[in-house]
Amino acid sequence: MTVAPPPGDVDTPARGGRIRRQHEAAILAAAEQVFARAGFQGATMAEIALAAGLPKSNLHYYFGTKAEVYRAVLAHILRLWLAETDRINADADPRAALAHYIEAKMRLTAEHPDASRVFANELLHGAPEIGDYLRHELRLLVAEKAAVIEAWIAGGKMAPVDPVHLFISLWALTQTYADFETQVCAVLNRRSLGPADYRRATAHVLNLVLRGCGLVAPIPEGVSPCST
């Protein structure tokens, strides 16, 4: 099944050369920070241009309006997240496939915390920009991957779980380290989360989920089950 790209998706290779791709990447990275801090209403194109290190005229050249930049940020993080579901297929080993997805989601949380917060804020406001996408394309993708998990369960490859709620749980377990980083840091007595914190958190989520699915014995911290 091929899922339609998220709304506002930008096919950068087809739109220009290396400089254009670099500028668009810089704009999206800057916009993630500005939208995460100020929200859509509070953000301005001038702030995004300043954070990107580009003239405001350049920003308007690549993205005509603030709404276009906002949709592109949402599309970018959705594209990254959804691409990691590819390994969840009928031919895959359940343990390796789920471990890869968990590790990838945690890595993306660490690399793009602001984008995750922008996405969370969009949902808290009723998903006005991506609601239709969530109700249609995302729901169909989850149904497709849930059918794979149901087949694994029927084949005795993993313990019975509700596959749809498994995905919902995975989203919560991974994205919380970005969306609620302030709370996590307060409990862990950290100013910010570093690589060691993410390694520990990833090992915990892997153990929690894979053991709950009847797939593994405990995984030592820092050891990837994808390579075992």
Would you mind describing this structure in some detail?
With 228 residues, the protein is mainly α. It folds into two domains: 12-73, Orthogonal Bundle (Arc Repressor Mutant, subunit A); 84-222, Tetracycline Repressor, domain 2, CATH 1.10.357. It has eleven helices and no strands. Helix 2 (18-42) packs across helix 7 and helix 6 runs antiparallel to helix 11. The protein is globular, with a radius of gyration of 19 Å.
Task: Compile the SSE list and pairings.
Blueprint: H1 12-15, H2 18-42, H3 45-52, H4 56-62, H5 66-83, H6 94-111, H7 113-124, H8 131-154, H9 163-179, H10 181-188, H11 195-212
Helix pairs in contact: 2-3, 2-5, 2-7, 3-4, 5-7, 6-9, 6-11, 7-9
In short:
The chain has 228 residues and is mostly helical. The protein contains eleven helices and no strands. The protein is globular.
